[in-house]
Amino acid sequence: MSRSLFLPPEVGANLRRPPRGPLKRVNPQVLFSADALRRAWLKVKQAGGGPGVDGVSIARFEADLDANLRDLRRDLLRKRYRPQKVKRLLAPKRGQGLRPIALWTLRDKVVQRLVADCIAPYFEREFLDCSYGFRPGLSVKDAVAAVVDHRAANRRWVADIDIKDCFDSLDPKLMVRLVRRQVKARPILALIEAWLKAEVFNDLSGPQTPAGVSQGSIISPLLTNIYLHQVDLRLTRQKFHLVRYADDMVICCRRKQDAQQAMRAVADALNQVYLSLNPHKSRVVHFDQGFQFLGVFFLRNEYFFLKQ
User: Fold this and answer.
1) What are the pLDDT digits (tens) for 269-287?
2) How far apart are CA 52 and CA 55, in angstroms?
3) b/e code 215-224 from CB counts within 10 Å (16+ = b)
4) What pLDDT is attached to residue 4?
5) Cβ neighbours of residue 237 under 8 Å, at least 6 residues apart?
6) Residue 174 above 70 pLDDT?
7) Angstrom distance (rounded) from CA 202 to CA 244
8) Distance (Å, whole) CA 252 – CA 262
């Protein structure tokens, strides 16, 4: 008999047994067990990345790993854990402009990894096939293959969609309400709320801003999928052929007027969740004209992976 039958949801979810119903309760002693924290740490270490505002690197954290994880567990169990300030840098986008990237401390990354792994199965069972970004077993190549399949089915008019300031515009209150549909365990909700409210480090004078669903945090891809799942539902119910990878979206149609209608439907769906189209980057385009999606340039019956 499977071990997951004897484990609470926060552990059983990681054993690939599809959970039933929302995650109502967790045992903090199990959720924040030494083994669970160590597993989360190993994933954080493997992903790499620089230090947060505290300056603690992966090598420095690992040099005293047992003590660091023990202290982190103690703070979590005693409800003394608080996310540290978030360092933000501006990275160039593939096209033009700058994209804000959040750098969290390793302590925060470890807890985010643990929570994301715990709750993801409760949302994965709800996500639609049109969503490809940061999901188990799916990749950019799968999203590209979906676009190629639509092209082969003669859906050659494309609504090429850009969401204006997506990550900075996700509404924290709505985010928490959406998470609560599948996660009702207060310890986890409290952590997510704390991360959304974490202060962004600002060495200049001026008001502090909350991190929100900051791009660069470990849990932000899952939270973004939870949020934009509402857009997926609205568009697929209207029978649009959507391909979405995180905040990158295209809709493939047979006729130009259908793609124009799709663009209007996207604008309405985004408005329902307090987001908006970027009018300067969203357009209706034909495969013969060419367009870029996920670092791939589609042109007529070909596609080319662009250099990163």
Assistant:
1) 999 999 999 999 999 999 9
2) 6
3) bbbbbbbbbb
4) 33
5) none
6) yes
7) 33
8) 9
What is the DSSP annotation of the chain? --GGGGS-HHHHGGGTPPP-S-B----HHHHT-HHHHHHHHHHHHHH-----TT---HHHHHHTHHHHHHHHHHHHHTT---PPPBEEEEEE-SSSSEEEEEE--HHHHHHHHHHHHHHHHHHHTT--TTB-TT-TT--HHHHHHHHHHHHHTT--EEEEEEBTTHHHHS-HHHHHHHHHTTB--HHHHHHHHHHHHPBBP--SSS---B--S-BTBTTHHHHHHHHHHHHHHHHHHTT-EEEEETTEEEEEESSHHHHHHHHHHHHHHHHHTT--B-TTT-EEEETTT-EEETTEEEETTEEEEPP-
State pTM to two decimals.
Answer: 0.90
Q: Would you tell me how many other CB atoms lie within 10 Å of the CB of residue 76?
A: 19
How far is 173 from 178, CA to CA, in rounded Å?
9
- Say yes or no to pLDDT of 93 above 90: no
pLDDT score, position 11: 45
> What is the average pLDDT value for the chain, to the nearest integer?
91
Residue with tokens 């007529």: 300
Q: For helices 220-237 and 256-272, what crossing angle results, to 10°?
A: 130
Query: For 249-283, b where at least 16 C-beta lie within 10 A, e where not — what string?
Result: bbbbbeeeebbebbbebbeebbeebebebeeeebe
| Distance, first Cα to last Cα, the chain | 47
Residue with tokens 């034909």: 286
Q: In whole angstroms, what is the distance from residue 198 CA to residue 236 CA? A: 34
182-183-189 Cα angle (round to 5): 145
CA 267, CA 163: separation in Å to the nearest integer?
Answer: 9
- Quick check: 177 and 273 in contact, CB under 8 A? no
